[in-house]
Amino acid sequence: QLQASGGGLVQAGDSLRLSCATSGRTFSDYAVGWFRQAPGKEYDFVAAISRAGTIKRYADFAKGRFTISRDNAKNMVYLQMNGLKHEDTAVYFCAAAVAVTGMVVVTSERYNYWGQGTLVTVSS
Fold first, then answer.
1. Is 107 helix (H, G, I), strand (E, B) or coil?
2. Do the bridges between strand 16-22 and strand 2-5 make them parallel or antiparallel, or are there none, so unpaired?
3. Across the strands, what pairs with 56?
4. What is the widest separation between alpha-carbon atoms in the chain?
5. pLDDT digits (tens, 9 = 90+) for 15-51
6. How many CB atoms sit inside 10 A of residue 53's CB?
7. What is the secondary structure of 40-98 as a DSSP string?
8. How many degrees, rounded to 5, is the angle at CA 18 between CA 26 and CA 48?
9. Residue 46 Cα distances to 31, 50, 74, angstroms
10. CA-CA distances (angstroms) from residue 44 to 62, 70, 87?
């Protein structure tokens, strides 16, 4: 089970930190990613992190504003979002992929497990 949390209603320019928790799995065995889905749109890749947290990838819109991190001892992955914009409004999902050490996964089809999303609404 994966569970994303931390969403909410914020104003443009504000920050939020999303959390992704797992139960029943050893998070360090998986690469983890964040995706988002705005109303009426496809899933967009946001960020991904390797099993040990040493390699990270970001979508262009996330670079410089969002930071993905993980704490394997706590089975947690985070997405720190700063400088939020109205266009960041979406449901954010975390997902876990079976992956070798050092791999990041950026395509949604490669992910094995998905959590329920958390809604982020940014007012302009």
1. coil
2. antiparallel
3. 49
4. 41
5. 999 999 988 778 899 999 999 999 899 999 999 999 9
6. 16
7. TS-EEEEEEE-TTS--EEE-TTTTTTEEEEEEGGGTEEEEEE-S--GGG-EEEEEEEEE
8. 60
9. 14, 14, 22
10. 11, 20, 12
Per residue in 61-117, pLDDT (tens digit) is: 999 999 999 999 999 999 999 999 999 999 999 999 998 888 999 999 999 999 999
- How many Å apart are CA 100 and CA 98, to the nearest integer? 7
Give the Cα-Cα-Cα angle 95, 100, 106 (nearest 5 degrees).
Answer: 40
87 token code pair: 């266009």
